[in-house]
Amino acid sequence: MTIKHTLKLCLLLLIFTCASPKISKIEGKRLNIDQDLKPNEAVDAFIKPYREHVNKDMENVISYASQTYTKRDGQYNTAIGNLMADAVFSESNPVFNKRTGKDIDFVLLNHGGIRSILSQGNVTTRTAYEIMPFENSVVVAELKGEQVNEMMQYLSKAKRAHPVSKQLQLTLGKDGNIISATIHGEPIDTSKTYNVATNDYLYNGGDGMVFFSKNEGLHVLNYKIRDVLIDNFKKKDTLNPKQDNRFIQLND
Amino acid sequence: MKRRQFIQKSTAATVLAGIGGLSLQSFGSKAKKITILHTNDVHSHIDPFGPEDGRNANKGGVARRATLVEAIRQENPNTLLLDAGDIFQGTPYFNYYGGELEFKLMSMLKYDVATIGNHDFDNGIDGLYAQIPHADFEFVSANYDFSKTVMDTHVKPYKIIIKDGIKIGIFGLGIKLEGLVDKNMYKETVYHNPIEKAQDMSRILKEDEKCDLIICLSHIGYEYKNKPDKVSDIKLARATKDIDLIIGGHTHTFLPEPTIETNSVGKNVLVNQVGCYGLYLGKVDFYFSHGKQVGSNGASIVV
Fold it and tell me: Calcineurin-like phosphoesterase domain spans which residues (chain B) (predicted)?
């Protein structure tokens, strides 16, 4: 910047001094919120009773896990996934039955929906919040046999341990083709309509589960998956779910 | 923006600040400073992360944020505190109290204005409405039409605040709800095109209201590189004029400093976002002088 420029700008400033205020300079910064800042005492004191109440509830022991379970403990079905899908079945079916007089046929959840491990030892309310932090809730979709077959095709290709409840039995061959798919021990009947419980995320096409969109009816249970887990865990002294044969691939 | 231009601008700013100070002093007035503080996507993170946390150990915390905000307000009383949405959802505090504590704490920290994020519908529009009495601050959204919902009259398209004689216009923008939020949750809330609404807002705030500073509180997301057609703060900045600062949210983008974009008439506009969970506080200082803007491209920017 030369002297001439400076003088010019100086003149401009003098001329327009009486006009409306204009932005002359902007400074942007990002400030850290960390332990270098002392907490504001009034704010901290205000939070305290809420924190104590939540923490007390969160630490409430509701069951005991005999081992540590993770969603990686199995190729097509895992103990923790089986626990969740079976819990959705057993807790939601009475609600569904009371409303419709019908029963849920089976449950499908998603592998990605298991958000945390289940650690060996005391199971607290917090455990349920860790496994399922989201607000997703149970819905029951009425699916024709054709769409259930589409679902089986999806499961055979997804190559993930998407949790299913024990009423479903899906066996894949060595090359991933479907060898058998049964519900309550019966082959899937294309003339029948099945009541499939899932979460609202999958119902809305999450994880590419588009077969839910071709449903014959929807029942929103207003029952959060997390509350299902809490209710289910409370009924059991010990959680000892097992990996089983509900969804498997044969090696030969 | 290229580094070299920056350095030039910064140098210019230093020189000008000196001259401006002198000339203004001779007229008996003084350059004014407005400080804008902002958060986004705090997601019910009230307590700091614990020392064991894998990613954000010992970071965040509302009580610490309060200390920082208070110190900045003491230094400059002409400070505004804003939030760009997704106040709700992410810790059991929300599950237990439905957002009551979040709003009460924001009121204690004297937030001025917030916009509405998609997660603020997580307990339904009725759940949001139920917490409104706990909020001593205002909500703005120019592209959500709440007129057929319980939130009618509780959210305004924009808010004007005058600080030290500087007229500040703040408007809000929200993300498309269809496909992101269950219809049962947002009910009859109608979404409108954010860019069109922003153009309306900037015209109203600049030409009709004659604001000296225009801020957009946006929850539409910073940028979607894989979805070039999706509207974002970057696209918004380029397609509009007269907006000085876009404070964003939704994409949890951690910008170390504000991004400088060029608007539809070739002027600079700042876009900022501070990630999520209250780990950071954004701070943008605007200095005003009585007179015409200097330089061809408006004010000098130091980031």
Answer: 35-253
Instruction: List chain B domain ranges.
Output: 1-30, 33-288
For B154-178, write each residue's pLDDT tens digit: 999 999 999 999 999 999 999 999 8
- pLDDT (tens digit per residue) in A77-104: 999 999 999 999 999 999 999 999 999 9
Nearest by CB: B64 against A17, A37, A226:
A37
Categorize the per-residue pLDDT at B297 as very low, low, confident or very high, splitting at 50, 70 and 90: low
Note whether A206 and A110 are within 8 A (CB).
yes
- HEC string of A128-171 equals HHHHCCCCCEEEEEEEEHHHHHHHHHHHHHHCCCCCECCCEEEE
Residues A111 and B110: their CA atoms lie apart, in Å, by 42
| Averaged pLDDT of chain A | 93
Which B residues, 21 through 50, put their C-beta within 8 Å of a C-beta on chain A? 23-24, 27, 29, 31-32, 46-48
Of the residues B62, B78, B268, the best mutation for testing chain A's interface (the one with the most A CB atoms within 10 Å of its CB) is B62
Task: For residue A17, tell me if it sits in a domain.
Answer: no
Q: How confident is the model at residue B8 (pLDDT cuts 50, 70, 90)?
A: very low
**B284·A28 Cβ contact <8 A:** yes
Specify the CATH architecture of the domain B33-288. Answer: 4-Layer Sandwich (3.60)
A–B: how many Cβ contacts below 8 A?
A: 217
A5 found inside a domain: no
Query: Which phi-psi region, left, alpha or beta, contains residue B131 (left: φ > 0; alpha: ψ -120 to 50)?
Result: alpha
| Model confidence, pTM | 0.77
B136 alpha-carbon distance from chain centroid:
17
In sequence order, the 6+-apart residues with CB closer than 8 A to the CB of B228 are none
pLDDT in tens, A28-48: 999 999 999 999 999 999 999
Ranges of residues in chain A whose predicted pLDDT is under 70:
1-19
Q: How far apart are CA B32 and CA B26, in angstroms?
A: 15
Cβ contact A33–B96 (<8 Å): no
- Choose among B122, B165, B179: nearest Cβ to A135: B122
Q: Alpha-carbon distance A183 to A207, whole Å?
A: 23
Q: Which residues pair with B286 in a beta bridge?
A: A26, B34
Task: Calculate the alpha carbon distances from A177 to A111, B82, B229 in Å.
Answer: 20, 56, 39
| Overall average pLDDT of the B136-145 stretch | 98
Whether B215 shows a pLDDT value over 80: the answer reads yes
Asked if B278 reaches chain A (Cβ–Cβ under 8 Å), the answer is yes
CATH number at residue A174: 3.90.780.10
Structural domain range at position A119: 57-249
Whether chain A has a CB inside 8 Å of the CB on B130: the answer is no
pLDDT band for position B247 (cuts 50, 70, 90): very high
